[in-house]
Design goal:
By secondary structure, the protein is an alpha/beta fold. About 20% of the residues lie in helices and about 30% in strands. The protein is built from 9 helices and 31 strands. The chain has an 18-stranded mixed sheet that branches. Strands 5, 6, 7, 8, 9 and 10 form a 6-stranded mixed sheet that branches. The radius of gyration is 28 Å and the shape is elongated.
Amino acid sequence: MSTRMKSARPKVLHEVCGKAILSYLLDACRGAGIPEQIVIVGAMRDQVMAAYADAKDLAWVVQEPQRGTGHAVMVAQDALAGFEGDLVVLVGDAAMIRPETVRTLLETHRREGAAATLITAILDDPKWFGRIVRDAAGNVLRIVEAKDAAPEEQAIREVNPSYYAFRWPALRQVIGRITDHNVKKEYYLTDAVGLLVEAGEKVVAIPAAEPEEVEAVNSREDLAHVTSLMRRRILKAHMAAGVTIVDPATTSIDAGVLIGQDTVIEPCTVIRAPAEIGRNCRVGPLAHLRPGTVLDDGAEAGAFVETKNARLGADVCARHLAYLGDIEIGPRTNIGGGTITANSDRTGKKHRSKIGAGASIGAGTVLVAPTEVGDGAQTGAGSVVTKAHPVPPGETYAGVPAKPLKAARKRKGASR
């Protein structure tokens, strides 16, 4: 209900590095090879369902009222009619879970032939997580929620981040026996683990989750913390793939951004998704690449350059102080400092412009969209290029509005 988030948006739709929290979870399942997903929704469900209206692999189940994780699975039973396979159950705010972890969960579950398998984590500070209670031989006995745990159970460092795999027919046999005899008066899915153990079924728990994977979002502070963890994960992946990030502490790159080898990202740079940057590019410092940006190989978007829905061709140089929105720029073109695309009209509608290959745009040029500068053309410093006067290939235009430089010289001579 986003109570602690203090938000009119569902918690799972808040973004971490440009991507909704729930999307990380769904993509982790897809990456692990899970073909069908059932999303159980309650409060603010209309917003969640609308956000994923185009997803063809999702089914929706409404939980009303919301009475805990066990109750969530109970209300999904009709959606599982006829299903006899393995059921993975995850919580919707687990943005940090990786496809590899979900895959390990399923592979271990099937290899062990277990009725239930849990991915657990060992934490120095177990916080509010449920504790994994084992017997002297290391076998799982039950999971106890932190609020219901005795002092000796509170000291257990192995915790349950709620990453489960069940053999659905086995879970179906015990799900109806879960009670709400606990502090919160809810039906806990964790109780199903103890019921399966009592029934003589095999339950396996493996501490395979990295500590950062169990971090969930319950507040704005949590959101900032998880975002910082995800940002570091994204940057590490790019660096491992051959991208130089000069100062990771001041660099923010969204999930889903593509960057080619030997590209250099300078400090204080923000790159939003979707964006695609080729090989041997240079971005920043203090650059802002907004959604829809494409930099072909060797292109440069330097200090205080902002782009949006823009394609910079191979070896384009926009070294400093430019706004390039809704534009296509041909290869080997130089963009002078202070260049601006005036891409919005009085109604707020955006228009595109185009600059050809090998062009030279003078410092302080304003391109009033929609307009065009041809191949090999030039604009003088401070020029305003309008729709009425696009710059033909090979020509030099200057002035306000920009006109052929030869014509401007003739007028100047006549006035004398």
